[in-house]
Amino acid sequence: MAQPHWAAAQLAGVEKMTRSVAVLGGGVGGLAAAHYLCRLGQPSRVVVVEASHRLGGWVSSTTYPDQVVFEHGPRTLRVTGNAGMNTLALAEDLGLADQVRGISSSHPSARNRMLMTLMMQVGGKLHKLPNSLKALFTKKPPFSKPLVASAVRDLMASKVINEDESLFSFVNRRFGPEVAKYAIDAMSRGIFAGNARELSVKSFARRLHDVEQKHGSVLLGLLKDRKNAAKTDSNLETRELVKRAKREKWSVWSVAGGLENFVKALEKNILENNVDIWKNVPVKRIVRNGEKLVLQTDKKDLEVDQVISCLPSNIMSSVIQPLSPKLSTLLSSIPYVTVGIVNLEYPGHLIEEPGFGYLVPSSEPNRVLGVIYDTCTFPQGDRTILTVMMGGYWFKEYFGNNPSHESLLDVAVSEVQQSLKIKIKPKRHHVEILRDCISQYVVGHSEVVCSARKLITDLKLPLALVGSSYDGVGVNDVIMSAKNAAFMENIFRGNYMFICYNLASLNPDIVRVRGVLLGEEFCVCRLSFDVMTNRRIGCCSPAIMTSIGGPNCSP
């Protein structure tokens, strides 16, 4: 079956319904959801409700009077995939094209990613990850064999039929213990601040899991199954910033002055589109009033037709409890970890071998997850700026419940002294403890998310779950999740037609459902929602329905 292309256009002569939408959470996901609601056809009212005094969530930058920037959360965004291209397109829409700073794939920060092992005979030592085909055939520590041997192992390993397993177990079976112990373990700590022995391969690397179930060998399966790989969105590929990124071969990108400027541009955009933003207003609970939902806060209540929740699942769990204890229990089962972040600034250029930084496998006796070489990626004059990440899954074990900022600073400075041989004291520093900042996609995560969204459907709740608790922890994933939810909110209102084109024939196969046109031929799931009542009746894009909680979210 040919890959569908989805397109939306306003229906002529359809009367728009008066409708209000509340977006819970003013992080990048919530702001993106509000932006897309406005872009796709704004409801009569959109309200973003944020519990804290600031917007952006974990995207946070500090700019000092001398224009030095410290990043305390995400700092670069990847280009690859539809989600990556979509964020670039959003940056272009926000007028940030001239402020975007790209890093090519040949840049040292993209090529030189290192693992750290402290168990070498001569003490602590940094080792480069292979970054070329030639390197795969060369034995380099900490690996005892060339990595090509791991590929041969995958070709020989038998298939194991299962619904899910840990990422560590999967890689250990197929590629060997060293790849699991050093590369995958360290990568899991760098991305999730998590334990690879508990993280779900189905959620973390779904395609690898699926090709093994279908073909056995992962590598051969990827070659055979190329036609089923995610197809790029041709509309996104035409965007100028996306074309520039491909032309210049970007690996990652950011925004001049810090990634928080991306958040500020989003805030400016939605305010210009008459979105209400409530800050310092925690939502205490959600209750039902007929077909509407009522947000109860300490200041005032807000009754709306639709809620897009971008809250972390552990917070949403308590908010939704009066409405559905069962849904609350499901959401509360998703664990979180706390990460300590220490930014350090030193005078001069002190990194002997430029790169992105290094990660520390959990097998090493080190409280640090990794160190990022910030000024190797984006120089800031004659200075070296580093970010030391620590704790994560092991935070309480390493630091207790309430460590002082001074104790984290001491650990960070000691790490830099021992590993990078930087003996001078930092000129400037900043310490943050990001509590419950990263959700953990443990084994069975996809089933939990699917069950939660199915329950929302069964209860006929006008509610969408969006954000890093469900569909990917990266900024790109969160923004795409928000876009899908906003898109479906417009579909539900009956203001758009939904057409699926068969790219092979370019002939639309269209079915009308209560004012919405849906391309039925390409729908795996034949259940959708009545535009007026949210009852399941029609069909919809499987990818979008999975993202926003439709019935096609079977794991």
TrEMBL record:
Chief place where the protein resides:
mitochondrion
Its pathway, per UniProt, is: Porphyrin-containing compound metabolism; protoporphyrin-IX biosynthesis; protoporphyrin-IX from protoporphyrinogen-IX: step 1/1
Which superkingdom is the protein from? Eukaryota
NCBIfam families, per the entry: proto_IX_ox (TIGR00562)
Give the cofactor note: Binds 1 FAD per subunit.
Q: Which family does it belong to?
A: Belongs to the protoporphyrinogen/coproporphyrinogen oxidase family. Protoporphyrinogen oxidase subfamily.
* Molecular function, one GO term: oxygen-dependent protoporphyrinogen oxidase activity
Q: Where in the cell is it found?
A: Mitochondrion inner membrane
Keywords from UniProt, A to Z, are: FAD, Flavoprotein, Heme biosynthesis, Oxidoreductase, Porphyrin biosynthesis
Q: Which biological process terms from the Gene Ontology are attached to this UniProt entry?
A: protoporphyrinogen IX biosynthetic process
Q: Say if the entry is tagged with keyword Oxidoreductase.
A: yes
* Known catalytic reactions: protoporphyrinogen IX + 3 O2 = protoporphyrin IX + 3 H2O2
Q: What is this protein called?
A: Protoporphyrinogen oxidase
One Pfam family hit? Amino_oxidase
GO CC terms for this protein? mitochondrial inner membrane
For activity, the cofactor(s) needed are: FAD
EC code = 1.3.3.4
Function according to Swiss-Prot or TrEMBL? Catalyzes the 6-electron oxidation of protoporphyrinogen-IX to form protoporphyrin-IX.
